[in-house]
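Appendix B, Record 12. Input sequence as logged:
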Amino acid sequence: MRRFLKWVGIVLLVCLVLILLAGASLYALSSRKLSRTYVVPPEAPLTISSDSATIARGAYLVSTLPCAECHAEDLGGRVFADAGPFGLLVGPNLTRGRGGRTPPLTDAEWELAIRHGVRRGGTSLIVMPSEVFTHVSDAEMGPMIAYLKQVPPVDREVPPTKLRIVGRLLLGAGQLPLAADTTPKVAHATSVDTTTGAAYGRYLVTISGCEGCHGASLSGAPAFGPDMPPASNITPTGIGKWTEADFLRAMRQGVRPDGSQIKEVMPWKAFGRRGDGELRSIWMYLQTVPAKAFQET
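Logged structural output:
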C-alpha cells in the first residue's frame, strides 16, 4: 500500500509540474502576443476638417455609438469591468486633460486605433470594437476624429487595461483574441446612402456592434456575466409583435411594450439620440433578417 501511495504521489507531482510548465509556456506566449507589432498598409488619408459643422456632426456620431459604455459619457475614461483573475478592463481617457492622450494622437493614430485596433507604437489594443468601427464610412470617420481631437478636456487618471493570470493564459491559448486580430481587412466606404430604409438600417446595425451582443444572427446570446441579462432575440421571432412605435419608445425611453425597463447594459440611450429616420431604418432592417429561435446560429 505504501509503495502504491508513493507512485500516486510521484504521478501527481509530475502532473503538477507539467501543468505549471504548460501555464508558464502560455503566459510567455501571451507576452509575445501583447508585444507584437502590427503593420497596417497605408491608406488614403482622411479629410479631417475643423469647422464647427464638422465637429458638431462628429459629436453627434460619437454620442450615438456606444463609446460611452467604455470611455464614460464625458469620454474621460472609466473602469468598466473588474473581472477578477481575468483582468481589469478600462476605457482610457480620450480627452486632452490630465490622464488623457499625451502627446495628442495624430489623425492617423486616431484612425489606427478606431478602425484597426492598433495603438500608437504598433501593438494591439486589448479591448476595442475595431472590428465594428472599421465599417464606419470615411464621411463619418473624419468628423468623429475631428470631434475627438478637440473634445473638452477631463482631468481623470485611470489605470490601463490589464489581463491577469486567467486572461493571460486564455490569450496564450488562443482563446482570447486581441482587437487587431479580430478586425477584418476591408475596404472602407467613402460614404453611405442615408436614405431611410433597410439598407441604411443594416449599416447602422453593423457600425453599432449589435451582433457583438445579440449574436451573428441577432437571435440573442447568453449573459456575459453573472450580473448581466442574456442578450435578447431581436429577429422577427423575438420582436415580431412589436410595432415601429414600440421600437422607437424602447430606444428613446428604455421601456418595452409590456412596460418593463430595459437595463442600461443595452446602450439604448445612445440609440435614442438618433433621429427618427435612423431608428426607422434600423427597425426596417430588423424586419428583414431571418426569424430564428433564441441563440440559433
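The CA atoms of residues 98 and 155 lie 4 Å apart.
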